[in-house]
Structure formats: structure tokens, C-alpha cells
Amino acid sequence: MKVLYGVQATGNGHITRARVMAPALKQAGVDVDYLFSGRPADELFDMELFGDYQTRRGLTFYMGEGAKVKSWDTLTRNSLSTLIRDIKSLDVQSYDLILSDFEPVTAWAAKLRGKKSIGIAHQYAFMHKLPDGWRSLMLRLGVQIFAPVTIPVGVHWDHFNRTIVPPLISPPQYSRTVDEGLVLVYLPFETDETLIDWFASFTDYRFHVYSKRSFAHSINNVHFKPLSRAGFEQDLAACSGVFSNCGFGLASETMQYGKKFLTKPMQGQSEQRSNAILLDRLQLATVMDDFQPRDFQHWLEQPQPEPQLFQDVAGGLAKWIAGDCSEPASDVVRSIWGLSTGVPA
User: Entry's Gene3D superfamilies (predicted)?
Assistant: First the structure.
């Protein structure tokens, strides 16, 4: 079984899923080539796991201050001509299957050439009706246009009686401790000045802020750190809570380590708004649309939740893929969740 695995690299959550799937696919005997798009190649880091991977420009969102999508820049700075050229030039004929984590070049190349394609991503959960009001319905068409696949398998915190598997994340790499004074922050679209202003009065706490920067520095109780997978997870294991936008991957890792989660969804990002609604509905996080010191203090004083243990999703999916996906996806989903009934196709 030879597979081309396309990964949307705009956000770290997609790459995190690929990091979990890669060893499982290898153990299942699947020969995999990787393609990443949506981020310049020189901005990818810790990629040794994927061997001699390919990159393409793909599509991405452009963000402004305050974690708001810049619609005009997103529309004008993405190159449709480059995307179309990359899709047409990608050779997929030598592959038995195309696997897409919401990656448009591989997904469209498979569709245009009639290749079987499997979509495994959080976004494919929106192909089903979710209890998030109208947002999953609004997102559905966008998912179909952005990265269409033959068989979509969603990833979410609940199956909602649909073809949706639990979060695809690595087991904890560090022992869980709780430093009540340490707060982990990942708000990459807020300015340093904004974060300093927010946190300066909370002098009983230390805020470890990760973002794209070349060196670490501190201003009073706010400690700015360059992106590092190992350093970030060490702080995640030790902190009392996480303050972040509403990306699916980090929220899932926070649950796994049993840390309280405060989320400020990106403005104009319907996927993050859906995530926020469902986190609130499932009582898994506190949602804050605008920073309010009193609400933030209340969150800091909340107790820690229990760690959540997620099933071996990658192993089950890898075996299914190695078998050319001959088993119905709904049966695989039931098996992963440990269900005897439910989960329609």
C-alpha cells in the first residue's frame, strides 16, 4: 500500500495529527510520502519524522492583530493560479490512496484523477450536522470546496453519532505536575504589548508566552519564548492552565494533560467559533470573546479538571488504511469509540 499524505501546514494542529499518524502508518506497513502546504518551507520545524517530504504553496488564512482573519489579504494574497498549477502537476498515479488532512493540492489532484481519497481532519467533522447551531452547516460547503475527499472522517471531542473519531494526539511525553503560578499562553496574533497589558496586574502568576520569535526575553511576569515543541509541552505538563485561541489540537492536548483551558476564539473564524460553542456545551473550557480582568481572575482560581485519556485512534485508522479501507468507515469509528451501535455511515 503506497499512500500520498497531504497535510495543511497553516496551523500546527494538522502537523500534530500527522506526527501521530506517521508511526502508526509505518507500523501497519503503509509506505507513505508526505506533502505539506500553506506555510513557507523555511518556517516548518521538527520535521525529521516525515523524511524527504514535499512542499507546495497551497492556501492559507492571513491574520491581523487581535486574531482576526484579514479577509481582503486572504482573498488577494493567495495565488489561485499557483494552486491550480500545483494541482495539475502533482503526480498521484503511482499511489494506491491519497490521504488528506484538509490539504487542497493532494485532495483536488485525487478528485480530478478519480483516485480514492480519505480525509482525516477536524474539518471533516463539519460534513455532519453538529450541535453548534448553524455553523457546521455553513462550514460544510467550504470544506467540500477547499479539500474534497471520497471518504471524510471527522475528528472531534465527541462522536455526536456521526463518522467522527476522537482527537488524534500523541500520548503525554512528560509527567503531569501542577505549578499553580504558571500559565501557558499561545495567542500568536496578539501583540506583545497587548499581552503585557493584560497580564501585568496578575503578579502572583508567571505567563509563558510562545510565539514566532528568534530569542526569549522577559518583561516582569511575562516570559516570551520562541516556538519549541519540547519546551511547549514541558510547560503544558507543568502549568496550571492554558490561555489560547480555539484551535482543536491544543485544546485536545490540554484536556489530555488535565489542565483548565481558557479560549479566545479568532474573530471571523467560523471553525473556531464552532469549537468554542462545543467546548462550552461539553463543559470542557471557559470561553472569553474579549479579555476581561475579572473573568480572567475567576478562571485563574478554577480547579484543575481530570486528565482525559483518548483511545488509540491512529492505530485503528492505520490498520483500516493498510486494508485499503475495505471496512465501512462507520464500523471503524464504532470500534475506536468502543461502541456496539450508533454512528451512521
Answer: Glycogen Phosphorylase B (3.40.50.2000)
